[in-house]
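Hi support team,

I submitted a single chain yesterday and got back a structure, but I'm not sure I'm reading the token output correctly. Could someone confirm the output below corresponds to the sequence I sent? I've pasted both exactly as they appear in my results page.

Thanks,
R.
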Amino acid sequence: MARMRKKEALPSKLCESCGRPFSWRRKWQRDWDNVKTCSDRCRTALKTKAR
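Hi R., thanks for writing in. Yes, this is the structure output for that exact sequence:
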């Protein structure tokens, strides 16, 4: 089993919608390079802003 890391040691990005920093999540493990928003709410807001 892998060792746990502290949240400060995980990579982070800024959300393109709200500008807040968000940290890496295990469910984004394979797709981290393509993740642009911190939540579903920001993702939908970004889509509506683009229209």
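A quick pointer for reading it: Strands lie at 12-14, 21-23. Let us know if anything else looks off.

Best,
Support desk
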